């Protein structure tokens, strides 16, 4: 059976390594459509398994966390990322150091 869009997004998010982040657009492209960045946001907001699907590892392309983070707000997302060793500069994830490298997408 073919997976639906949200399942494809969740499969990608599960692959983001500990201590790394991915952008919404990056997850969208890996899930099959680079135009799904907003859809990624919707999917993560209704994440059915926050323990198994680490949605807190998804940030904007500039490294901003989501103020609407569904599982405790932006401050909780920052706490979770810092606990994995992700560093911030001026309130943003340092994307040049912590972005998940996925060479198989543009």
Describe the structure.
With 106 residues, the protein is mainly alpha-helical. Helices cover 41% and strands 8% of the residues. It is built from five helices and four strands, in the order αβααβαββα. A two-stranded parallel sheet has the order 1-2. Strands 3-4 form a two-stranded antiparallel sheet. A hairpin with a 2-residue loop joins strand 3 and strand 4. Helix 1 crosses helix 2, helix 1 packs across helix 3 and helix 2 crosses helix 3. The N and C termini lie far apart (28 Å).
Salient structural properties:
two-stranded antiparallel sheet; 4 strands; mainly alpha; 5 helices; 106 residues; two-stranded parallel sheet; 8% strand
Topology (elements, then pairings):
Layout: H1 5-15, E1 22-23, H2 24-31, H3 37-45, E2 58-59, H4 73-83, E3 88-89, E4 92-93, H5 95-98
Parallel strand pairs: 1-2
Antiparallel strand pairs: 3-4
Strand order within the widest sheet? Answer: 1-2
Q: State the share of residues found in helices, binned by percent.
A: 40-55%
Structural class: mainly alpha
DSSP, total strands: 4
Low-pLDDT stretches are: none
Please provide the ordered H/E string of secondary-structure elements: HEHHEHEEH
Distance between the termini: 28 Å
Average per-residue pLDDT, rounded, comes to: 91
Radius of gyration over C-alpha positions, nearest whole angstrom: 13 Å
How many DSSP H or I helices? 5
Report the β-strand fraction as a percent range.
5-15%
The shape, in one word, is globular
* Main sheet makeup: 2 strands, parallel
């Amino acid at each position: 059976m073919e997976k639906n869009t949200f399942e494809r997004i969740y499969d990608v998010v599960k692959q983001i390594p500990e201590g790394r982040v991915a952008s919404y657009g990056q997850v969208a492209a890996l899930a099959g459509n680079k135009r799904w960045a907003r859809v990624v946001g919707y999917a993560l907001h209704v994440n059915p398994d926050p323990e198994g699907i680490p949605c807190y590892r998804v940030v904007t392309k500039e490294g901003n966390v989501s103020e609407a983070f569904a599982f405790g707000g932006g401050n909780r997302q920052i706490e979770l990322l810092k606990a994995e060793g992700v560093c911030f500069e001026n309130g943003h994830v340092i994307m040049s150091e912590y972005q998940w490298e996925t060479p198989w997408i543009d």
